[in-house]
Every structure is written in C-alpha cells, then in structure tokens.
Amino acid sequence: MNILIINGANLNLLGRRQPEIYGRESFEDYLGALRARYSAHTLDYYQSNIEGEIVDKLQEADGRYDAIILNAGGYTHTSVVIRDAIAAISVPVIEVHISSILAREEFRHVSLIAPVAKGSIMGFGMESYRLAVEHIIG
C-alpha cells in the first residue's frame, strides 16, 4: 500500500509544542518507528503550515496513493478549501488527531473535514496515526 501522511499547521513543532497535550516525541521520530513497523508499505510524509500547499498536496495525491492520513491541525475547524479538496479527490482520507478535539476548547469541537473523510481517529496520541495505517492495510 502507498500511504501519504499529511500534517498541517504547527505540527512541525511536535515534541516541543504543548507536550502535556501532544507528547514529547517529534513526528519525525515517530514516523521512523512507523515506517520500520510497516516496512512492506510506503509511508510518505508531507507537512505544511500553509493551507494552499495542503490543498495542492491532496490534489497531487489523487490516483498516486491508496489512502491519505490527514491531521489538518487547526485547519480542521476552519478550512472549507481543504474540505472541498478532499471531496474532489477519489483517494480515501482518514482524519486523525493526536488529542481528542471533543475534549478541548469548544471552537475545536467541529471538524469541517469529518463529513468528507472516510473516518476519524482522535485522542490516542501519536498512535492515532498507527490506528489509521492499520485500518488502511486491513
């Protein structure tokens, strides 16, 4: 399986940003372990703090990947254009969040992405990504 993981704004700071919420592990370290665990599969990674670049990457991924794992970060709650990009492509997108957005501030309770994603996984720390991979590879 060819899987693309996309992380949105501020997720480049994992391991340093609010460790009480997001943990102390960098995403690069976690990704290395994830790739080793699922070495029979391709796990490509992309991160951007820029909304339009995430839209471009989603569009480029269509037909090139079997699935996309997307943690849009704060764009989850605000980005109609990321939502529209997901709705426009044929590759399934699984929404992931490290924390439970429903247990956070009220403005984080609504995901614009969830209605167009294949499913959502949240609240399991970095393991949310592994759970998404497990679902994809079946």
Helix-strand blueprint:
Layout: E1 2-7, H1 19-22, H2 27-37, E2 42-47, H3 51-61, E3 67-71, H4 80-88, E4 93-97, E5 119-122, H5 127-137
Parallel strand pairs: 1-2, 1-3, 3-4, 4-5
What's a quick, concise take on this entry?
With 138 residues, this protein is α/β, with parallel strands linked by helices. The protein has helices at residues 19-22, 27-37, 51-61, 80-88, 127-137, and strands at residues 2-7, 42-47, 67-71, 93-97, 119-122. The longest helix has 11 residues, at 27-37.
Question: Overview of this structure, please?
Answer:
- Strand 3, helix 4 and strand 4 form a beta-alpha-beta unit.
- The longest helix is centred in the N-terminal third of the chain and has 11 residues, at 27-37.
- The protein is α/β, with parallel strands linked by helices.
- It has a five-stranded parallel beta sheet, with helices on both faces.
- The chain is built from five helices and five strands, in the order βααβαβαββα.
- 33% of the residues are buried.
- The protein is globular.
- The protein has helices spanning 19-22, 27-37, 51-61, 80-88, 127-137, and strands at 2-7, 42-47, 67-71, 93-97, 119-122.
Throw out a few tags for this protein.
single chain; 138 residues; alpha/beta; Rossmann fold; five-stranded parallel β-sheet; 5 helices; 5 strands; 19% strand
Annotation field: number of helices:
5
User: Regarding quaternary structure, how should these chains be classified?
Assistant: single chain
CATH architectural designation: 3-Layer(aba) Sandwich
Provide the number of structural domains. 1
